[in-house]
Amino acid sequence: MVKSTTNFDDFSLIASNRPVDWGKIATLRKEIKRKNLTKEYPICVNSRIASQKRYGLDGTKIGVVDGQHRYISCKLESVPMFYQVVDTLTLDDIPRAAAVQSSWKMKDYIHHHATQGKQQYMLFKSYMDRNNFAPSSTLSILCGDRSSISFGKKRGDKRGCVCNGSAECYAGLGIEKRF
Prior knowledge:
Strand content: 5-15%
Largest sheet: 5 strands, mixed
Mean pLDDT: 82
Strand order of the largest sheet: 1-5-3-4-2
CATH topology of the largest domain: Conserved hypothetical protein from pyrococcus furiosus pfu- 392566-001, ParB domain
CATH class of the largest domain: Alpha Beta
Structural class: alpha/beta
Number of helices: 8
Shape: elongated
Number of domains: 2
Radius of gyration: 23 Å
């Protein structure tokens, strides 16, 4: 069951967890201000008793097992923290769970936007797939460098790339304009 609180002093970080990344916290704080998704991604904690036995806490604190960066970010932003008590989860489980997760790659973002019907991404993905190129190679060919994936600018404009929607642009990509 997911609970919420602003009583941050009831919780404690666990010394043997990975070091806090303050750059990650800065990013999370910005995201919380933009759109707070901490309710959808609750922090996992152990009960006071389990935290005391496993991590040497004093028995008055709830140990944050997964989500220490979200915990700190919520505390600094003074927004409610959502959490669930999961005593079957230990700190040793977190690296194993993280090892099988993967972050989104550029190709994943391109696929996501293309399947949503965003024309410039559809063009980019079509060109990339048709030529069996990696996203970085496709960027280099279509944009002249790999520093931008901001679609919709005219070719040669270093702030963006690919296609301005004209028939000539589609022809240059080898695509018949159908949408």
